[in-house]
Write a structure and sequence with these properties.
Number of domains: 1
Protein name: Transcriptional regulator
Strand content: 25-35%
Radius of gyration: 11 Å
Strand order of the largest sheet: 1-2-3-4-5
Largest sheet: 5 strands, antiparallel
Number of helices: 2
Helix content: 25-40%
Distance between the termini: 19 Å
Pfam family, one: DUF4160
Order of helices and strands: EEEEEHH
Organism: Candidatus Viridilinea mediisalina
């Protein structure tokens, strides 16, 4: 599962050919979560509240890049790194 971003100890990952709806995975220490891209919401898992808010804010700003990576992943194309 490729890493597509990393900031403040948060690792953002996206699987190739993953199930709908478009989403990404988050790892923070021993916590893990699945975040839907649009609307940007916590769909599964658990993160500390502060980290969840930071990830949601980041994903909202980077929604177009996340959606583009989702499309690439569905077609098994290389994923782009997304800055914090």
């Amino acid at each position: 599962m490729p890493r597509i971003a990393e900031f403040d100890g948060v690792i953002i990952l996206m699987y190739y050919d993953d199930h709908q709806p478009p989403h990404f995975h988050v790892r923070y220490g021993s916590d893990q979560a699945l975040i839907h891209i649009d609307p940007t919401t916590l769909a599964a898992g658990k993160l500390p509240r502060r980290v969840e808010q930071r990830v949601i804010a980041w994903a909202t700003r980077r929604m177009a890049e996340l959606q583009a990576n989702w499309e690439r992943a569905q077609h098994h194309q290389p994923l782009a790194w997304i800055e914090a």
